[in-house]
Amino acid sequence: MLATMYQLALEKDYRDITVQDLLDRSGIARSTFYAHFRDKEDLLVAGYGVMGMPAVQTRLSNGRARTVLVVCSWLFVATKKHAALTTSLMSGASREIVLSHLENLLIIQVRDHLKRHGGYQSDGIGGEIAVRSLVGGLLGIWRWSVRQGYVDAPLEITGAFNQLISEGLWPQTLDIAAQST
């Protein structure tokens, strides 16, 4: 059923795809579809599940070993692999629906990771600000990359993102201290 959704999404905007279109194209009975999915958005979310889960790695950051969710490379590698589908979904009127589901998926993954590894402060808003800052930054870079036609390699983007997020290191050409004087 996902393959059918992908084919249709390459042909027309996601909002214009109906459950009947999916059934007609796939030859699956309506009752079978609804036995597995509530609606076509449930099928879209299942598509994100096919991407799997981001890996977890131990890395040195500022001299300390940290358990890091490798969410940036996970997202950019999957995007590059499915570039035509991503471009189609993000260029139509349905991009906000697609983006909303992706944002929710990333928020859940990052929040769960931080909670598991002691990086989420549940008292106050600090933990949620950390989650949403990371996800917001990642999605901003991701949207830019999609609009640019995937000109940069996923590993280059990941390296720059991870350096900024985990170590707070800005590109060497940006000297904030010099600019503020």
SSE topology:
Blueprint: H1 2-11, H2 19-26, H3 30-36, H4 40-50, E1 56-61, E2 64-69, H5 71-81, H6 83-91, H7 95-116, H8 126-147, H9 154-167, H10 176-179
Antiparallel strand pairs: 1-2
Describe the structure.
The chain has 181 residues and is mainly α. The chain folds into two domains: 2-47, no CATH class; 54-171, no CATH class. The chain is built from ten helices and two strands, in the order ααααββαααααα. It has a two-stranded antiparallel sheet. A hairpin with a 2-residue loop joins strand 1 and strand 2 (64-69). The longest helix is centred in the middle third of the chain and has 22 residues, at 95-116. The termini are far apart. Residues 1-55 form the HTH tetR-type domain. Keywords: DNA-binding.
The general outline is globular
Cα radius of gyration in angstroms: 19 Å
State the share of residues found in helices, binned by percent.
55-70%
Parts with pLDDT < 50 across at least 5 consecutive residues: 173-181
Largest sheet: 2 strands, antiparallel
Q: How many helical elements?
A: 10
Give me the side-by-side strand order of the main sheet. Answer: 1-2
> What order do the helices and strands follow?
HHHHEEHHHHHH
Give the oligomer, counting copies of the same chain as homo and different chains as hetero: single chain
